[in-house]
Structures are given as structure tokens and as C-alpha cells.
Amino acid sequence: MEFGATSPRSLEMHFVDIHEVLPEEEEEENEENKLRKMADHKTDKNVNNKPIRMREMKRQHKSFSRQVSLETGFSVLNRESKERSERKALPRSGKSFGGFGSNHGVGIEGRKGDFNIFRTKSTLVRQNSKLPLRKESGIETQNNDVSAGGPNESDNRSVPAGRYFAALTGPELDQVKDSEDILLPKDEKWPFLLRFPIGCFGICLGLSSQAILWRALSTSPATKFLHITPFINLAIWLLALTVLVAVFITYALKCIFYFEAVKREYFHPVRVNFFFAPWVVCMFLAIGAPPLISPQNLNPAIWIIFMAPIVFLDLKIYGQWLSGGKRRLCKVANPSSHLSVVGNFVGAILAAKVGWKEAGKFLWAIGFAHYLVVFVTLYQRLPTSEALPKELHPVYSMFIATPAAASIAWGAIYGEFDGLARTCYFIALFLYLSLVVRINFFRGFRFSVAWWSYTFPMTTTSIATIKYAEEVPTVISKGLALTLSFMSSTMVFILLVSTLLHAFVWHTLFPNDLAIAITKRRQGKEKKPLKKAYDIRRWTKQAPLSFVSSMRRHNSADKNSDGEK
């Protein structure tokens, strides 16, 4: 401690320059001792005016505990925050939960490499019962994560939708923020099934939609002059079918062995929409089946089998949007929500293909009604809607898939590409162009398998353009159809090569799926960016008396002393 000069005025003003912030209990104790010494020192030095000085020291002792300048306050605050960050900011590896003390290290280490948390029919209670006992201060206690502040059984239950937006970032909300902790270790490789996300069905979406595109290119009158062989459609269809079988079997194994992880994906606000993808892919393959192997009229049982899961998911998801609650649409809406709407239009196309046009009209009405709701919610950004992170820009390509599929479905049901079908197509075309001119939206993000789902909106728009060129056979319409078809096929080829390289050369296609390992609640207090004025106020509140109150009381004490003089 350094005191000011011993002038008469300085006896009334005592500025304390704090060089070190001690823990709260030690700080209060040291402060009291220093005040006593300061009072004794001033009393001994001013024996002649002892009554006046004693009254002043009593007032000062009651009015303020310490008084600092702004410069000193900022320096101490910065040093204090730095020490706290060094003490609490541990590496986010699944072994630390919010920077707790070393006493809990034993329990955290006990979870390293233990992935049974997400196994089928396993809970954290069962897992904690198998943890070893520890000895602390001669007393044998079991490592209870609930009392230690670590994850408990509730961390493995359904995670609120808003928690995903708060804890995750990235194009698919698949990256954990640096300030968040996870339930599994980050620094070791997880089992393959845990690293296999539902977004892998996006690969099947891109390939199966390409099968429909090349079937249209080989059979449409608008592109007959190209003389495209139907064997391209056959090759792509077989490739898409093979990939679908492989992905479906792998994810079925994940459902069997790691059902808790599948539940986490189902409650994810982005990934829940990909549960529509397997059945949409099956209908894509039925629609785009090569003429060489498919009959002229499909069996209606195919439509029933593939459409039943989509209707079930519609009732579940749309019911949550309608009834409100924590998963109402304005809380969980994101561009990938269009996937839950596209399934209805694809089902309407297949219904028209099997001859059930009334069922197709029913599905088209459901899809169009919910498309308007989703479109308005995302386009208008309701005040209650969760703000989308900047990294979610690539998923804006989903905007063009739904109106394009609606136009194709309307043409398939009524047999002509009339006014309403063209209206939906023009909406899709405008949104397509508006995204193309904003190419920066799609730069600077690492590759992932979920990017495949963004190819089928391009392909769907290309197919709708071919249908439009059949009704309006002009050079512009045919040229636009060829251009969009070339762009979508090129994008699929690039993604296919990238996927093969990441899978078999670089072995980075399936990193640890950190999104499913977040905790239900954030461990510790959430830190928000604070302004400097608020930082000073927050720091002074930790003192026995606040800075502002001490100033006011000290000024009143000076006035009283002047009056007595």
C-alpha cells in the first residue's frame, strides 16, 4: 500500500492504490487491519487535535472502505479478469466442465473415453454408479457429479432448442463455441457410429435428384436435340441406390447401438429436418427410375410405404409449430426447415405418378400452406425468432427448393405447367438468382457431408426449368435449362470428388460430432461482453462498500467537518 503525502488536506482524502486483488475473505481481513493501522498512525501523529482527527477517522472508516481512481480500477479489473481466465479457461476436451476446481478432476478423468452415455438404454445415473470411489480428507466419498457441478442425468435428456443456438455455430450448427463444454472428450477419436450424422442422407439427396434430372434431359422434348443417352440416368440411379443402402444400414446401426445420440439429433433444430431426407430420397429414386427397369405405372403401395413416415413427421413437427411451446416455429425456424415442406411436394409428384391425384392435391395443399408460414417467418424475421448466426448463410440455398418442387408437383397433378406452376417457378428462379449474386455467402466454410443437401435445390430448379421450356419452347428457356443443369451437375461432381478425397485420402469426412455432446445447461455463469462503465460498477460491487456510495458519504463527511470547524 502507498499513501499520499501527509499534508493537512491529504489527511481528509485517502487514496489507496491497489496492486493486487486478493481473494474475497483475505481482502476484507487485510483491509480491516490496514484501516486500523492507518487510524492509529494518524492518531499518534496528530495528538494536538486528537478529538477532531478521531471523529474524522471514524467517519472515514464508516463512509468508505477504499477509494480508487478510474485508471487504477481499470488496471485492477483487467488483471482480475486475466487471472480468472487463466484459472478457469481450461481446454474444452470433455474433461473439464466450466473450469471447476481440481477437486473434480478425478470425476472428469473417469469419463475419458467412456461413450456409454449415448448407448441405447443407458443413462448417466447408471454410468455414475460404475465410477470409482475417491478419498478426500480421509473420508471415502463417491464422485457425485451433481454436487460437483459437473454433468448429471439431466444433461443426457432432451436439450432445449434454444440451447443449440446458444452453444453451437457453423453452417449446420455442428461446431461448439469455445466457451462451451461437452460431455465427451474432444481430443480423442470417437466411435464411427457416433461420428456418423443424419446429414449423410444429403449425399443421397444430391445423387437421387441428379437421376431425375438426367432422366428429364434424356426424355424431355425441350432437350431432345441433345440426344442424351438414357444410360447416364441408369448409372446415376444405381449409384444413388447403392449410396442410399449403405447410408441407411449405417444409420440403422447407429439407432440400434447409440439411440441416445439419435435422440440428440432429433431435438437438434437443424438436423431434425434431415429425418425427412431418407423418405424423400426413396421417392426421388421411384420418380427418377430409368425407363429400362421401371414399369409405366408404379404400384400405389410404393407411395404408401414411403409417404407414411413423412406424414408421421408432419404431424409431429407441424404440431409443435402450431401448438407453440419452446419448439414453436419462430423459435426453431431456419432455412433447413424447408426440407420438412419439400417432402409433401415430392409426395404429391409420386402420388400423381401412381395415379392418386386427389392424394397429391391434398399433400400439395399441406405443403403450400406451411411453405408460406416458413417463408414469411424466415423472410420477415419475427421479433421472437432466434437470430441466425452468420455461419448459417450457406443454408439459404434451401429457399429455392420448395417453390421449385411446388411448381413441378402442380404440373404433375394437373398435367400442364399453367399459371400457378409458373408463379412458383418464377419465385424459385428469382431466389436462385438472388443467391448467385451473393456468392460471398458460400465462402470460407469447411467442407461437410451436409453440403450435399444444398445440391438438390439447384437440381430441382433445373428440372422445373426443363418443364417450363416444354411449355414455352424458346431459345432463352432452353438455354436457361441447359445452363442450370450444367451448374447443378458440376456442383454434384465437385462434391463427389471432395467427398471421396475426405473419406479415403485425408480421412477427415467424419470428425467428432460435437453437436450431440453439448450439455443441457451451460456449466457455470454465462459471460457476456461488458462495457467499461459497467465493468467498473461490477468490480466496485465486490468491495465491502461501492465506489459511488463511498464518494458521496466522504463528501458529506467533509461538509460536516467543515461545519464543525
Describe this structure in words.
Helices cover 56% and strands 2% of the residues. It is mostly helical. The chain has a two-stranded antiparallel sheet. Strands 3-4 form a two-stranded antiparallel sheet. A hairpin with a 2-residue loop joins strand 1 (133-136) and strand 2. Helix 3 crosses helix 20 and helix 9 runs antiparallel to helix 11. The longest helix has 31 residues, at 475-505. The protein is globular and about 100 Å long. The two termini are 31 Å apart.
The DSSP helix count reads 21
Strand segment tally: 4
Strand order of the largest sheet: 1-2
* Overall SS class: mainly alpha
Q: What proportion of the residues form beta strands (DSSP E)?
A: under 5%
Cα distance spanning the termini: 31 Å
Low-confidence stretches are: 1-12, 14-25, 45-52, 61-77, 85-111, 131-155, 529-540, 542-548
Q: Radius of gyration, Cα only, in angstroms?
A: 33 Å
SSE inventory with pairings:
Elements: H1 24-45, H2 50-63, H3 70-88, H4 105-109, H5 124-128, E1 133-136, E2 139-142, H6 145-148, H7 161-167, E3 168-169, E4 175-176, H8 201-219, H9 231-257, H10 259-267, H11 277-287, H12 300-323, H13 329-332, H14 339-354, H15 357-380, H16 401-414, H17 419-436, H18 455-471, H19 475-505, H20 532-541, H21 547-564
Antiparallel strand pairs: 1-2, 3-4
Helix pairs in contact: 1-2, 2-21, 3-20, 8-9, 8-11, 8-18, 8-19, 9-10, 9-11, 11-12, 11-14, 12-14, 14-15, 14-16, 15-16, 16-17, 16-18, 17-18, 18-19
Protein name: Guard cell S-type anion channel SLAC1
Keywords: Cell membrane, Ion transport, Membrane, Transmembrane, Transmembrane helix, Transport
Region (Disordered): 22-47, 79-103, 130-158, 546-565
